[in-house]
From TrEMBL:
One of its GO terms (biological process) is glycerol-3-phosphate catabolic process. GO terms for molecular function: glycerol-3-phosphate dehydrogenase (NAD+) activity; glycerol-3-phosphate dehydrogenase [NAD(P)+] activity; NAD binding. The keyword Electron transport does not apply. It is found in: Cytoplasm, Cytosol. Residues 268-417 form the Glycerol-3-phosphate dehydrogenase NAD-dependent C-terminal domain. Pfam families: NAD_Gly3P_dh_C, NAD_Gly3P_dh_N. It is an enzyme of class 1 (oxidoreductase). This is Glycerol-3-phosphate dehydrogenase [NAD(+)].
Length: 456
């Protein structure tokens, strides 16, 4: 694996869970009676599930740990969603009994009848996430005041989309000016920004956080893997990697690990973070192709061959040892194509149920991070300073010119100058090279551009 990878042994039973909690408390310098404070900033599907997993595992140690979620107040639940929530609640006896016991059921009846407006932060306290209404979670402690949520938090989980990360953490930095202890930050965001000058490079969420807050990179980690949030909470077997400094990634991997959720650790933070954003780009195109061809297995396999060759080509630009990323990247891509929100978005575009003009925040799904990633990767790889030798023509070209699917997606989603159906032309172009040739070209040329990841 890139960097050093270790599988952390699990400790079974209640005593093992408390030992892991005590071990992390000691590492963070917590004395007896001093709560370990963990807050998830952002309450999308993955941020909410992550907090719920911790609450289920450690929440009963109330004298040792406090787990909370911050989300913005005032987001109203519309009538159709309230009706669906009511159906979900009544289909789950455990949820129904819990709400009745908490005297919270009546408000869902009133909302179902249109007599009351529910709010996203309100239903999250009952374990119902607006972006994942079909998967009830455990009740969560929700805070709507950002300063209250983060000012003394020991561990902050970034559950925000990459497009909102910088803005929110710039606000957080105002509340940390007088902090003595430096917090630990775990980012779940999969997305990137492109910085085009003076040297073109990728900017990842962990870099945004460090720049906004001044927290050293040693204390900022990335957690990602081939998984779907709702399935993880339903205890489908899953794995993930937590990437970052040796000081924090090993104890945190041990702390986060559960019997159904295996967490490995890795030292290569930025590259794994970028790969998490790259697969979202091609997932949108996969959804388009699936819908436009009536789920044709042949068409989807043709698309997969071309998109994986482009991803492999791009990884050769980003890292000196791209072959070591092949497994994690393909696994994450595969699960996203099967059930991820980016592939779903591509399908809805192709069916005409959504349009690019509707933006990247979609009701019931949250932020479609692949859209901004398409723009960032294409604009970055279009820079003349990154030019590579064309395999057939004796001239230098920008890397984006060798990625026809990325180019089409950019013209469809960002420039909005081509219809969604045009994605098929990227597969049917008679002048297109065999995808194998793109991979061979990447492997046989020195394409690595360390400056893309901010390296000298």
């Amino acid at each position: 694996m890139v960097g050093s990878v270790h599988v952390n042994g699990s400790l079974n039973g209640a005593n093992g869970t408390e030992e892991r909690l005590d071990e992390l408390r000691r590492l963070l310098g917590k004395s007896e009676g001093d709560l370990l404070k963990i807050v998830s900033v952002g309450a999308g599907a993955w941020g909410s599930v992550f907090a719920a997993l911790l609450q289920d595992a450690y929440g009963h140690f109330r004298e040792k740990v406090q787990i909370r979620v911050w989300r913005r107040p005032g987001r109203a639940v519309d009538r159709s969603t309230a009706e669906h929530l009511f159906e979900v609640i009544n289909s789950r006896e455990d949820v129904l009994r819990r709400l009745i016991r908490r005297c919270a059921y009546l408000k869902y009846v009133e909302a179902r009848l249109g007599d009351r407006t529910l709010y996203a932060d309100e239903i999250l306290r009952d374990g119902l996430c607006l972006n994942m209404v079909d998967t009830p979670l455990c009740p969560l402690k929700v805070v709507t005041n950002l300063q209250e949520a983060v000012w003394d938090a020991d561990i902050v989980v970034n559950g925000l989309p990459s497009t909102e990360t910088r803005e929110v953490f710039e606000e957080i930095s105002k509340y940390w000016k007088e902090r003595i202890a430096v917090p630990v930050i775990i980012s779940l965001a999969k997305g990137i920004e492109a910085s085009l000058g003076p040297i073109p490079r990728i900017v990842t969420p962990t870099q945004m956080i460090s720049s906004a807050t001044g927290v050293p990179t040693e204390n900022i980690l990335y957690l990602g893997g081939p998984n779907i949030a709702s399935e993880i909470y339903n205890k489908e077997y899953a794995n993930a990697r937590i990437c970052g400094s040796n000081k924090w990634r090993k104890p945190l991997a041990k702390f986060l690990r559960q019997p159904h959720f295996i967490v490995w650790d890795n030292s290569d933070l930025i590259t794994h973070e970028v790969m998490g954003g790259l697969k979202n780009v091609y997932a949108i195109g996969a959804g388009m192709v699936a819908a436009l061809t009536n789920e044709s297995a042949t068409s989807k396999s043709v698309y997969f061959a071309h998109c994986t060759s482009e991803m492999i080509f791009i990884t050769h630009l980003l890292t000196e040892q791209p072959e070591k990323l092949a497994g994690p990247l393909l696994a994450d891509t595969y699960v996203t194509l099967l059930k991820g929100r980016n592939a779903w978005y591509g399908q809805m575009l192709a069916k005409g149920e959504l349009s690019p003009d509707m933006g990247d925040s979609i009701k019931g799904k949250g932020m479609i991070q692949g859209i901004s990633a398409v723009g960032a990767f294409f604009e970055l790889l279009s820079q003349p300073s990154l030019s590579v030798q064309h395999p057939e023509e004796n001239k230098q070209v920008a890397p984006a010119e060798l990625c026809p699917i990325l180019k089409r997606l950019y013209r469809i989603l960002i420039k909005r100058e081509l219809p969604v159906r045009d994605i098929l032309q990227a597969l049917r172009d008679e002048t297109m090279n065999d995808p194998r040739e793109r991979i061979e070209m990447a492997q046989s040329h020195a394409f690595y551009r360390p400056s893309l990841l901010g390296k000298p």
